[in-house]
Structures are given as structure tokens and as C-alpha cells.
Amino acid sequence: MNDKNPRVIKKIQKTFAKMSFPNIEVSLEGDVVHLEGSVDSWDDVVRLGYQAGKFKGVGEIVNNVKVKGIVPKKEARQKKKLTTKIYPPKLPKKADVVVVGGGVVGCCIARELSRYNLEVVLLEKEWDVGMGASKANSAQVHTGIGEDSGTLKKELCAKSWPMYEKLTEELDVPYLRNGLLVVMTKDTFSGKMPSFVGNFLSKYLIPPFVVRKGKIVGDKPRVVKRKELLEMEPNLTPRALVGVFHPGYALVCPFRLTIALAENAVQNGAKVFLDTEVTGVLVEDKKVKGVVTNRGMIEASFVINAAGVFSDDVAAMAGAKEFTIHPRKGVILLFDKEMESYITHQVSLLKFPRDPHTKGGAVLMTVDGNINWGPSAVEIPDKNGREVSKEEIDWVFEKYSSALPNFPKSSIIKFFSGIRAPTYKEDFYIKPAKNVRGFVNVAGIQSPGLTAAPAIAELALDILREQGLEMEEKEDFNPVREGIPIFEKLSSEKKREQIEQNPLYGKIVCRCEHVTEGEIVDAIHSPLPAVTVDAVKYRTRAGSGRCQAGFCGPRVARILARELGISEEEVMQKGDGSNLFMKSKVRKRGGKHA
Amino acid sequence: MHEVDVVVIGGGPAGMAAAISAYESGIEDVWLLERDYWVGGILPQCIHDGFGNFVFGEMLTGSEYAQRYINKLRETGVKVRPNTMVLKIDQNREITAVNPSDGLIEVKAKTIILSMGCRERTRYQVLIPGSRPAGIYTAGVIQRYINIEGLMPGKKVVILGSGDVGMIMARRLTLEGAKVKGVYEITKTPGGLTRNVVQCLEDYNIPLHLSHTITNITGRYRVEGVTVAEVDSELRPIKETERYVPCDTVVLSVGLIPENELSKMAGVEIEEKTKGPTVDEQMQTSVPGIFACGNVVNVYDLVDDVSESAERAGKGVAASIGGKLERRKTPIRVKTGRNVNYIVPQIIRNKNLNESTRFYFRVKETEKSVGVVVSANGDKLLEKRERIVRPPEMVRINVPPDTLDKIKGDELTIDVEERKK
Ligand SMILES: Cc1cc2nc3c(=O)[nH]c(=O)nc-3n(C[C@H](O)[C@H](O)[C@H](O)COP(=O)(O)OP(=O)(O)OC[C@H]3O[C@@H](n4cnc5c(N)ncnc54)[C@H](O)[C@@H]3O)c2cc1C
Ligand SMILES: Cc1cc2nc3c(=O)[nH]c(=O)nc-3n(C[C@H](O)[C@H](O)[C@H](O)COP(=O)(O)OP(=O)(O)OC[C@H]3O[C@@H](n4cnc5c(N)ncnc54)[C@H](O)[C@@H]3O)c2cc1C
Fold first, then answer.
1. Could you report the predicted ipTM of this complex, rounded to two decimals?
2. How far apart are CA B157 and CA B171, in angstroms?
3. Which of A89, B292, B374, B376 could staple B382 via S-S, CB 3.0–4.6 A?
4. Structural domain tally of chain B?
5. How far apart are CA B114 and CA A508, in angstroms?
6. pTM of the predicted model, to two decimals?
């Protein structure tokens, strides 16, 4: 290890000693600080990581500090082979570029690459794309007002949001630009400040400041006085004083976007492989040579690491671990569509002091009309730790009740969590590996990573060019991808036509969302086949309504079995071992109907 | 746009009985729309016995009970359209439905009978925390899997909630070779009928843990286990009593809710307690010409009661189309009195009825040796003795037409009173 800058190390060690962690080993590699040792709790691990990142000149932190007595859980994945009539195809031996990770970022990169005459392969370990953070987030297209200036996050977010209108139109993805109300209330300043001072600040000083933030990122925000504010949102807390409206803020369906990006990449010649986990990276002479997966090896001189919360593990496989991801869970509550018109704009209450590690969350809605609240932000050791506790549900509900005090808790139809993938510097880390040519880390993609994905992809391509990848534009690249028709949203005329063309569109399978068998069959046979019950759900909404697949579950399973040529017992909800049924001696009675 | 006298939405026992009753009361132009590929509603998957004790004086299976109505239906001229999902109703009684052979169907109905049944509450509605793997089902869903689709949802099962369906499925799963590790019920008393506690749990040595709930579900892809705990008097889990139970399947029997999306679209008033439409003695809702019956109105215990409510609705539409109903000057509001949680019907709109009105109600608390008292303006009209009343078991009381006609004011109250020994 070359310690060119031992002064930083000494400073960090001194601070750690003061924090009563004298035994943590600190070393430096370039501008990356490495930490080793053990402490009593996960919170301490995270604290040390942040602390080290505060010193000037520290680029990133590789935090290998362990919690005493806890052996990190290694996932034993029980890879069962599943061969269906339509999936999976065989891995190629070679590619020009391999993208690891089929989140919104990896898929966006794959689509950008598919504009060129290149063999592009995207590998995703789960049975569908978007199964990581990209399906479990707040779905906001931010403008960048929440990010600190000077960060790459802010730059790429501000660059991306104006691209969304065109992108979602090309890809036929639901997009709703309804704007964000940042609201100041009587509780904006809590604590010791006398309330008249707080109210004065909230009413007169903060709004122009918030307006300026919006203008910097290219939006056209305006101050909204209390009366208009309550007209815009009659159910908003009466404690509201004033708001700032950001018309640039929008919502997108994050998983349909991810799927659409992947499909469009496939339509333009890229290959997407599901259930394909990268387990090793081949490096020779400081150059990347390819990847090893559970399905075999692929040679490639360029590899993009877009593995989300696992990106530090994948980087480590290449010997390019220049950062550590510390998983941060966010819980979101989803409400019944019945409440759809309760609020119509995104609403975020401003509160001081601000929590530095989350943008504060908001009262939101999905493009499909479900109000949702969240997220929370909790540091956790387990990258798969998506469990949601009762306390978390209550916490989220309480917190956002302050915006909508009369909202009924009984209208919750689902709760879930997503895991953010921050580094200790809390910024995107998009760089070629220092010591492995051709290997590019696209990591630390926490919020607003969904929004920023288009600009992240452009940056990643620029880096690949610098690394020596030759890109020659295709003549026949087609940016347009047509989605499956959404029966419920069609006009009566179109509904009739659709059923005439394909009578399966006259058969409703999901009673809550009115999804037809036609849509489900089309999803299964789409450019990126839907192979699981959840994959069908993310493409069609079948099972995402208030009965949560109680009614359509068995029907979707039957259709999947039929179309894939597998038995019902092989049908999985979301991958590995998530089979819905078990082999048994129950005599088959029905079976003819889906 | 078709024009039809009566459109019945939902072909379960309620819908079938309503259609038959309307037809038999002289209305020939009756449509029955059912989204499934069969009629019968929930019944075909209920292969246990216990249906029809009142209507037929026999203990039939659900499928047999349904078959009797299907046979009757065949003798009528009711037009049955299976595979037909109703998507929309509006205030003018215009209905949009869809099926693969006719495509989009638009109907203007003179009268509508809502009989869409109910649906099960999910884990999210009762807020069971934890991870979200495969292997969490509601009881009615696994009933369908096992009894109709021939699919086995799991091998090691924990059941939450002691509703009837949950207990029946505990037995069914056991008979199919699964190990039911226990039924956990958050309240102090079983949620379902006593006969089911005995016949479905005790007879099969399946432990019933009262005052217990599931506090966590674990497993990433498939359920691996649950944490259970005892609850205190306010139903809060007691941390020290938490225990891990390995299992691959969680079955929920945590309540049913009337399926009223269409009713709401039609602007029908919904009761807070029953979560179903407000109905009068004809089973007419707050929107003239729209009637409702069966579990869409209120979750009845027995299918016999469902059929009874449906028959009434069928006669109601016939009377309404024939202009035979005589309105009271002021309708009578039916009020809940002592130890009464809710009552169906909630309102009496007509007079000179030609048969008794049956009130169904649920009590708030279990009580022994009581009198059910119907009164108006402080006058006792009727009293009926009950040996025991329990929240899970509905109480019925018939009030003759002349008794109702005697009521001068606009209120009728039902109380459950202690009887002094
Ligand atoms: C609760 C929450 C709310 C959020 N809200 C917003 C918001 O409102 N707006 C916004 O802009 N952003 C938001 N974000 C952030 C946004 O969701 C993420 O930044 C974005 O989804 C990251 O995309 P990704 O492709 O980098 O990661 P992911 O979606 O996690 O994708 C990584 C993929 O890599 C795969 N993978 C990992 N390891 C391997 C391997 N070895 N081999 C093969 N595949 C592998 C994973 O399975 C996964 O599919 C939110 C995030 C969370 C958690
Ligand atoms: C597991 C279980 C065990 C039971 N055991 C007993 C017992 O032992 N004894 C007893 O007496 N009772 C029992 N019952 C109760 C009895 O089955 C119900 O009371 C009865 O089925 C309710 O009838 P229904 O017609 O109101 O509803 P359902 O049977 O639910 O029928 C409603 C119908 O409406 C259709 N529908 C809904 N929406 C639409 C739409 N938009 N368009 C078209 N069609 C639609 C549905 O597909 C369904 O067929 C049991 C119930 C269950 C679930």
C-alpha cells in the first residue's frame, strides 16, 4: 500500500481514537481510504465510514470494518434450472460490452449502447430486470433541488429531468408531470425557536430561497400563498403556511420504464439474460477480459458494473473495489385507488433541521393512481434486508400524517421497501476502474438515480469511449418501443377493436385492475419475456390491486404454465424457490381453464 | 345498447336466487352476468358440508347447494352469461361489461341487482409485517387451489385468524397431507362458528392459540417461518412471548369485505359497519332501481340467509317494476340498541308488505340468556328469547307486516336485553 498522504491517515486515526475506536486500521490507496477492524454495532461501522469521508482529499472509502461476532450472511442461492419453451436462450461466448445489472441504470446503458454496431450483453441475476431498487422506489422524477450543489447527483439529475417527456413517449411508459409542492407549515421550524420567528422565516424567507433552488436546475417554480395552496390541495394540513410549486416534478412508472428500456435494447439487437449472476470478473494485464456467470463465461474487453447495492462486490471481483456501498432501506406505504383524488400534486413538507441522508420523502402518488407515502431511511447491514416491521409502518404513517392529518390508515393496500446504494461520500461514483482497463464502475446510484439514469448512461458511454471502445452508429436504430395495450384505459371503440383482433382481450383475469388475458399473454411473449408471476404483474398490473392477487393469482399461474410449457408447480412468483405450489398427490381435478 | 328489465351482477348463490325469484315473480327479461366461467360463486369450491340446513332442511356441500339452484335456473328463461365481467355501472343504470365472444356489452337496465359477493382481507390490510415472499395466501384462495385447480399450496402451514374458511382449510390441508402447525387468533374467542372449531380443529388435533398473532414473516423467495406472540388486552403483541415457527405457508383468514366497487360507481350509499350498501326491506339501495343481496350487502354466516336475502331482492325488483310498492310517508330508520353492532336492513320504506321482514344483526359481545326486543317510540313491539348470542353468529328476527305498519314515527330499535332469572 502506498501511503503518500499519511497526514490524512493520522487525522482520521486521531478522530477515531476520540470516538473511542483506537483499533481501526486506516490506510490510503490513491485518494481512497481503507478501513479495517471490528466494532460492536452496525451503526458504528456506518459512523466510521462517514467520519473518514469528511476529511479533505478523501475521494472514497472502502469500509471493511466488521461487527464483532457477526459473520456476514452469504446467500446460499438454490439455483434451480428452469427451462421453458421460450426461455432462457444460450449465453454467447463473446461480446463487445457486458453490462452487469439490469436495474434502470444498466438497462438505460444497454439501450444507449444498442444505438451502435456493438455486441451488447446485459446480465441480470434475478428472473426479471428491475428487481432491485428500480422497482421499489418513490418513482419521482426529481429536478435536483434536493441535492447539494457541486455533486454529480445534482448535475446529472438536472440534466436528465428535461429528457423524460421524450423518453417516456418513445418507450410508451406512463409518465405524469403533476409538479411538487414544497410546503412550509407551522412546524417547519421545531425546537427552541419561538413560533412567531419560525412562522416569519417560513412565510417570507424560505420561499424565495426554495424558488431559487428550482431555477438553478432549470425549473420555473413559483410561490403559492396559503389560500391557493389549500385550493390546490384541500386535504392538506391546516397548519400549512405557504408553498412553492415546482412544475418540473413528475412521476414515472419505474419498473415499466426499466422493462421498456430493456425491451427497446433487445429490439435493437442487445441481448438480455435473466437468472444470470456474475460471480467473477476476468482480468489479465490490468485489462478486463470478461465475466464468469452461473451459466458460463463471456469474453469481453469492456464491462460496466451497474450492480446497484452489490456494485462494490462486483467491483471487488475485478480487483477494483474503490468504494463501499452501505445499504439504506426505505419503506413505502401504498394506498387503495379509492383515495386517488385525495391529493393531486406531490407534496413535501419542509422541516428543519434536515436529515442529511434522505431528501425527506413525500406524499406522492403512482402513475396508476395509488397514493403512496415514504420513504423512511435506515442503515442496515443486509443488502437483501427488505423486511418491513410494524414499527416502520407506523413510523411512516405517523410522519406523513402531518401533511394529511385525516387520511385513513385502513386504506393501506401494500407496504414494501427498497434498498438504496450509497457510498460514504453520498454521491454517484461513475468512473473507470483505476487499475483495470475497460472496467467501469457505475455505482453509488442512490436517489435520484432513477431520474438521473439517462444522463448516467450518457456519461458511462463517454467513459467507454475514453477507454477505447469504438462506437459506430447504427443506421436502423429504432428508439420507439410500443407497450402492451392497457385494456382498461382504451376507449370503448378501441376496446371493441382489440377484442375483435384477439378475443383474449375480452377475458378479464385481474378483477381489481381489469387486466385481460390478452395483456398477460402478450407480456409473456414480449421482447423480454415475463417468466414469473411478478414479472407479469410489473408489466400488466395483474395482481397489484386491492386483493393483491387473491383472485388472479391462480389464473395467472395457469396462463404462465400453459404459455411457457411448464407445470404449475414450476411457476415462480419471483425467482429461485419462490414457487407457488408444491408437488403433491392431490389429484388433478380441474385444469382446463385458466 | 341493449335494454333489459333486470340485470343481476354476480352469479353466486345470491345472484342465482335473485334471478330465479325475479323471474318467478313474473319478470321474464332477466340477465345474469358472471365473470367466472361457471355460476355458483364461492360455492363450487366449498366441498365440505353444512349448506342448506334452513332452505332444504338437509346438510349439503356447497357444490350440491349450488347445483340445486343451477337446476332451477335452467328451468327459467333467465339469460346467463358466464365469462362476463361487469366493468362499470352508472347512476342511470347503464352497465358496461365484457366477454370474449360478445366483446364489449352495453346495457341499459330498468333495475339492477348487485350480488358481487365479498372478497378476503389481505395481509396488507391487517398489516402483518416482515418480508414479502411467495407462500402467503388467503384461505379462500387455497380452497380454490386445492379443491378446484388441484394444486397444493404448501406443506407446513400456519394459519392466522380463526374465521370459518380458515378452520375449514385447516382440516382440508391436513386431509391432503400438509402439517398444520397451528391456528393463531388475535382475539379471545374463535372468529368462526363453534361447530367448525370442533369439527375442523379439535377433531384433527390442530392447536388453536387464542390471543395470539403473527408479528413477522421471514423468507426471501418462499416463506421460511413466522414469529408468533401472545397479545395483551389491547391486542398488542407481548415481546417476551415471541416464538419462531418454521413453515413454508401462511394462510390468512382475517375477514371478508363486501365487494362494492361497482356499487360505489353507481353512487350507492355504503354503510360504515357492514361496508355494504344501505338497503331497505326490499333490498333496494339508496339509488332507486338498484337492489343488492347476499354478501355484497353484509357478510352473512350461512348461505341460506344469502338465498333468503336474494329471494327478497328478486321479489323487490318485480314489485318495483310492477309499481306495486306503497311508500310510507316517512321511512323508518332501523337503530342499533343495547349490545347490537349492526342490523340489516337499515331502513323500511314501504308499507302493506305481504310478508314478514327479517332483520339480521350481530351483537357486540357474547351474552347468555337474553331477550331480543324490537321497539318503536318506546313501545315494545316484539320480543324473542335467545339462549346465547355471540358476535360471529348472526341473530335473526322476523317482524310481521302489520307490526311494521303500526309504527307511527320514523324509528325502530333493536336491543339485546338481559333477562332476569
Ligand atoms: C425507497 C427508495 C426510494 C427512491 N426514490 C427515488 C425517486 O423518487 N426518484 C429517483 O430518481 N430515485 C429514487 N430512488 C433511487 C433509485 O431507485 C435508484 O437510484 C435506482 O433504481 C438505481 O438503479 P440501479 O440500476 O443502479 O440499481 P438496481 O435497480 O438495484 O439494479 C441493480 C441490478 O443489478 C443486479 N445485480 C446485482 N449483482 C449482480 C450480479 N452479480 N450479477 C448480475 N446482476 C446483478 C441486481 O439484481 C439488480 O437488478 C429511490 C430508492 C429507494 C430505495
Ligand atoms: C370457505 C367458505 C366456507 C363456507 N362455509 C359455509 C357453510 O358451511 N355453510 C353456509 O351456509 N355457508 C358457508 N359459506 C358462505 C357462503 O358460501 C356464502 O355466504 C355465499 O357463497 C355468498 O353468496 P354470494 O352470492 O353473496 O357471493 P359469492 O358466492 O361470492 O358470489 C358472487 C359472485 O359474483 C361474481 N362477481 C363479482 N363481481 C362481478 C362482476 N363485476 N361482474 C360479474 N360477476 C361478478 C363473482 O365471480 C361470484 O361468482 C362459506 C363460504 C366460504 C368462502
1. 0.90
2. 11
3. B374
4. 3
5. 19
6. 0.92
